[in-house]
Amino acid sequence: MEQITKNVFTETKIRGCNPSIVLTREGAVFIDTAQLITPLLEMRNFALQHGPIKALINTESHIDHIFGNHWFAGECPVIGHEKLIDTFWKIPASFNMTTYEYMLDVIQRQDPEGLPFMPKEEDYIINPPSITFSDRMTFKSGDHTFKLYYTPGHSDANISVYVPEERVVFVGDTVFSDCQIWLHSCDPDALLNTLHFLSTLDVDYIVPGHGPVVKKEYLKQQAAFLYEWLSAVAYGMSKGWSKEECVARISFADRCPVDIGQEDAMDYIQTANVRVVYDYLLAKV
């Protein structure tokens, strides 16, 4: 794990989201969970050496953020946005497998050491949020304040977690730093508004959903990349290209890599991004 501040730890070098821990005087608060079992259990053991686990916060419903919820069932409350349940434990139909089958395949290929700890499907506990909110929520653990904000854009259930005492905000997949941005469930207007809101927070560190920890200045780069996607598809539409012609001709695959362990998703990202942006612009017209 990478230590960001005295009490904040995150893991940015594994497949899936960047799971994080804030150590408080009363115990640990997790923000998202590792998609791979081995680092998940290592993070749990580290946290438990410093006290009980007080809460788990899910910043969104995508599987790489919530798969590990099983290992917190009955131990602590799970907190998330009220819309989280609508897409919780679901994957795109194009994957042609159940969510459990998908995760079992990921563990078999990328975390064989964790395979003995993978529960059977009938024993897996989905463990969705037991505490939800609509716009904002604040709670304290020890001397730490956790300010939860509804920050939609990447999906309609995304939240950000601001810990002012550490001058850190965890933004989930609102930010993909130095890697491909996934727009498959994106609302560009909401995402741009969220990026602007995050720029108003008094922080030193932003923990993204994927990629290395960044400073607040990176929010401008993320917005610029989104504008490039919008501009590229808008140009194609201005030339009379159909959606599928845009898919065939527009790609940012040479811009940056896909996040760790998901290299085979590059074609899916480029295709899905074009289709989402095309539909968004068509609706605007």
Describe this structure in words.
It is built from eight helices and twelve strands. It has helices at residues 37-48, 63-66, 84-87, 99-110, 188-198, 218-238, 243-249, 266-284; strands at residues 2-3, 8-10, 20-24, 27-31, 53-57, 78-81, 131-133, 136-141, 144-150, 159-163, 168-176, 205-210. The protein has two domains: 2-216, Ribonuclease Z/Hydroxyacylglutathione hydrolase-like (Metallo-beta-lactamase, Chain A, 4-Layer Sandwich); 223-284, no CATH class. It has 285 residues and is of the alpha/beta class. The mean pLDDT is 97.
First-last Cα distance: 46 Å
Number of helices: 8
* Strand order, sheet with most strands: 1-2-3-4-5-6-7
State the total count of DSSP E strands: 12
What can be said about the biggest beta sheet?
7 strands, mixed
CATH class of the largest domain: Alpha Beta
CATH architecture of the largest domain: 4-Layer Sandwich
CATH superfamily of the largest domain: Ribonuclease Z/Hydroxyacylglutathione hydrolase-like
Order of helices and strands: EEEEHEHEHHEEEEEHEHHH
Helix content: 25-40%
Shape: globular
Short summary of the structure?
The protein has helices at 37-48, 63-66, 84-87, 99-110, 188-198, 218-238, 243-249, 266-284, and strands at residues 2-3, 8-10, 20-24, 27-31, 53-57, 78-81, 131-133, 136-141, 144-150, 159-163, 168-176, 205-210. With 285 residues, it is of the alpha/beta class.
